[in-house]
Amino acid sequence: MPSARRILVVLAALASAAALQASAATSAALPCPPPGGDPAYRVSLRSLTGPTGADLAVTVDRAPDSGCAIPDTLKKLQVKTFALDGTLLSTRNLDDVAAVDGSADIRLGKVARHQRVAAEVLVQSADATRTYVLRRTAATLLRPDLVVKETTAPRIVFATRAFDVTARVSELNGDVGAAAIVTVSQGSTALGSAPISIDAGGSAEASFENVALTDPGRNDLTFAVRNADPGETDATNNSRRAPVDVINVADRSEDHLVPLGGYGAQMNQNVYATITGAPFSALADLESKVIAQHPGLVRVFYNDVQARTFPDRQQSFFKTLQLAQNAGATINVTLQSTGSLTVGPATTRLVNVLNTAVRTFGVSNLRWVTIQNEPNSTELTPAELEVWYRALDTKLRALGLRNQIHFMGLDLLAEDQRIWFDYAATKMSDLLDAYSIHVFWDYWDTAKLEQRLEDVRAIVDGMPQAARKPVYSMEYGVRGIKKIGTTTFVNPGVWDASEQIPVTQTNVNAFQQGWFDILAAQLGFAGTVKWDSYYGKYDNTPQAYYMLGQWDGNGIWRVNPIYDVVRLFTGTTRPGWNVTGVEQDSILDTRLAASYAGANGELTVVGLDRAGGQLNGLSPTLVPYAIGGLPPSTTFSLVEWNRNGDGRTADAGSVTTDDLGVASFDAPLQALFALTNV
After folding, report:
1. Rounded to 5 degrees, what are φ and ψ at 283?
2. Which residue, among 513, 504, 534, has the nearest Cα to 292 in the 3D structure?
3. Which residues pair with 158 in a beta bridge?
4. Cβ neighbours, 10 Å, residue 52
5. Where are the alpha helices (DSSP H) in 495-627?
6. Model's pTM, two decimal places?
7. CA 650 to CA 642: how far, in whole Å?
8. E strand or H helix at 354
9. What pLDDT, on a 0 to 100 scale, did the predictor assign at position 29?
10. Which of 53, 62, 110, 596 fits a 20 to 30 Å CA distance from 321?
11. How far is CA 609 from CA 86, 89, 449, 515, 621, in A?
12. In which residue ranges of the chain is pLDDT below 70?
């Protein structure tokens, strides 16, 4: 059994706890003073008026140090309204007025600003044994009027880049302040909200961070004031719009990357020779189509051995140069191979051929010469190639042709390209006027076309300043499937294992080569030459990369889709313009664009969406483009290749830039576009 001492300790602890509880209850329950003594309650009035009339807010609260319960009903309420001269206008007596948390709102009707309102309030104690009379007067004030006075928002933004905006809200009436919510939205899309508190006659700013817009073109941000407390005299002026142009491409025409050397194709030098076998009746159609394409840059092989062995091929070479001249192209002659040749005699023969072309056949557009096609695929070394160029340099100078005919060096494939570039930069910088590469890729491997261009750009940019030269791609093309089962297809193969269409005849082939041209320009390449222009035989090895397929029974040369892609570039740009900079939305955006500017205000932007790179047919998807940095309020022509899935180029109407110089339009996913003032 517990001891008596232990029982006494427990009883004492319980008594102490009870005493503490009683003390806490006494201090918490303050007395409610009787009427006539210390204040039990206090009352406040706020009379606000506006176009719809006035409202009186009556609020009863307990006085400091009062333990009275806040009433939920006002037993009686008398409201008197006085004229501006002080005379009594009206008296209203109300019974048992509901008062949530001690507050009641009374409609007063039409009351002017500054009219005095008096209220007498009877409040009963919670046990209904005591009644308190409270009195107060107040001058009627004008409700607040909140207005979005100004906003700050960028006028042009990129679609995926977040930005900050602000709205400054002012209270115009000057009598009372207000609390409110400010929202920003675009159409039905809410972009943010922020609370504000504004003093009477004052202003407050609401800030919104990381706002993002995704729809290209003109967007209107709407800033609005909502849920004002107290309510406003005028809610019709609570919003303000801020126009923002959302772009995915910015043209930087003032940023000159490189003079444009032009776009064009390799022209087979044997097209007029027996080896090709083109009937005379078919040549007129070929020549008209070559000239109609207006190539800006053409490359023609000179094969020393063939020219000496087959006189018709030598004559065909000169005729091909004349065709390029008639088409208006700048011409590059490339000594195809040095393999079995000796430097001295071979360079003498080459310089004589060049001299004959210029001075006998009138090929004044012959501006470039290259020695050895793809030397890094041969046994030739960089040092040996240098010997060839120095010998040719001496002989061209002796004939007075070196100022006209420049050296475009290297014609490199990817293998060991850095070794060749490094040698050219350190040993041949005084000789070479430009660098050249060749790029081919499988149609399913478009990453290669981008990587190759980016790698070469990085190599040249890393050279000493004096060694940096314009860079050209003097061959490029798409390869297909070369073999299915036991069937081997003519190079470059076919598209799609089931359909087995020659890849050169597909829109996929054409689209990807347009992609190559655009990216090359964006990276500052001076020009590109498509391999190759038309059907012809270099030797007895068949290949079919050409834009114009072999003639039919009527002497008509087949036009492949790539012909129109190159025509898009040659028709909307001119050699001698500047390839200019563009800024794109983000590296994740599949859209791609390049820009060109002429000396007299000519301007062209060419673009596509890389997501269309595997489409051979028609897509229902329209890609929105918004291009900034253009002249404001200016009308451009819009030309599109493959708009209808037919591989052809057509006029797509006109686009007029807005007041900020933004052009907005849509183009099908499978299409290329050129926006131009040419």
Report:
1. -70, -30
2. 534
3. 247
4. 12
5. 507-522, 561-572
6. 0.85
7. 8
8. helix 343-359
9. 55
10. 596
11. 77, 75, 15, 9, 11
12. 1-29
